[in-house]
Structures are given as C-alpha cells and as structure tokens.
What we know:
Number of strands: 4
Mean pLDDT: 93
Low-confidence stretches: none
Structural class: mainly alpha
Shape: elongated
Amino acid sequence: MSxxxxxxxxxxxxxxxxxxxxxxFADSGWKEAISGTPREGYEAMWQAFSTAARDxxxxxxxxxxxVLWLLADACSMKLSPSSPNEPFKPFAMIHDRRTVIPDDxxxxxxxxxxKIVDAVDDDWLKARLSDLVWLKGQPRxxxxxxxxxxxxxxxxxxMETWIEDGKECxxxxxxxxxxxxxxxxxxxxxxxxxIIAAFKAATRADGFLGFWLADLLKSNCLGRVHRAExxxxxxxxxxxxxxxxxxxxxREYFSAAAKWHKAIPDEVKAAEMTVAVAEGW
Length: 281
C-alpha cells in the first residue's frame, strides 16, 4: 500500500474527542516539521506534517499528534479558486475513499484553528487556516477572510512559486477580496499594484511568468488602466522569444498581446499580433 493510500485509508488517527490547546500547538513542533521542507506548495507541507504526526502518536504525544494531523489535513486540500462555493477539493480519491475536504472538519477542529491562527508566522499555513475558518466558521467572520487575503498575497510572485500553488493562492486572494467588495477594496488595489510591478519586472529569463501574470490580471478584470503598457510589454517579450527561436513562447505572448491590444481598443495592433501568431507556426 502506498503512503497516499495509507493516509486515505486511516479512519481514526487520534481520539476524536481529545481536547487540544494553543499550548499543544506551540509545543507540537510544527515549525520544525516544515522547516526542512523544500517549498513545493501545500503537498510538501501535507507530507511533512503527516510524517511528524505519525511520529508524535508513536511517541505517545497524542495531543501534539492531533495538532499535526489537523495541520496535515488542512494542507492536504487542493485549492480550486474558480469554484467560489467549493474552493477546496480532495487532493486524491482512491476507489470509494478520498483525502480530506472542509466538510470533514468538526466545529471543534475549526475552533482549534481559530485559537492558533494568530500564532502562525508561516504565510502558507496562516493563509490556509484563515481561509478554512472563514469558510467553515459559524457565523462567518470577515476578519479571517482578510487574514487569508493578507497571507496569500505575501506569497512571492516568482516563477518557482507560481507553479507550486502560488498561482492558486493569488487567485484565491483576489476572489476573496472581490467577494468582500468594499470590505477589501484597498487590498484588491494593492494586489493589482503588486501584480503589475511583478509583470513589469518579468524578463524572458522568467519564461511564461509575464504571460501568466497578464492572464491573472485579465481573468480577474484587473489592470484596465495599464492595458497599453501590458500589451506593449507582452509584444516586446514575444518579439524577444521569436528572435531566440522560442516559437511556442512567442506565439503565446503574441496571442496574449493581441487580446490586450484589442481591449484598449487598438484593432490595428491586435490584428498585427494575430498575424504574428500565424507566422509563428
């Protein structure tokens, strides 16, 4: 049986009614569990917490084990920002079993997250716990949505992070801010500014990062006052890739530039970019 199957098949890893406190969290060794983990998104954190939880249970540290299992469960969920009603999906399903989803959390579990979230100084973990409290807490408390947004938007906008859950984290932060409307308008403006700044700094050495950041703006109706600047930068990068013989990247950037030019609107430049896409085959 694989380690993933083993995690899915375990139905009870600790006594369900075992109480845990903020002190149990502080003493659980959660920081040590992930300190040596290469940051490859939430999956790596899930595996690290799971290993630490099993070790704690085997050592008879049941409260610490429960804390670590709850953190593992929280990190095991796959973020799906495009689904506002179900933003967290199970990471995997095997036969009739699956990994954890928010509905598996008890009220006591959610209250445990409430107790510890302010003591968490890891942006990834703070974002996840705050988001789950916002989603499952009754009644809903906007403060936790704001905590989630602030933690998500602290995650770097770079190539390595983007492909390891960074994209989903930033998308979720934007969706949360849009959901709160006036309650997070300032944060939405700040996120837009951060994305624009990262986009401006992107070079050909960053591969598709510029393309992805432009798409993040466009798909969330952001960057409207920067349309001409974004279109021009995409076009410049496209020509650069074309000159280096990177035809696939060039086509993708030319195609994105066409959409941004059309949104200005500049139909002449949009048509020029469309022709460049065709010539890149």
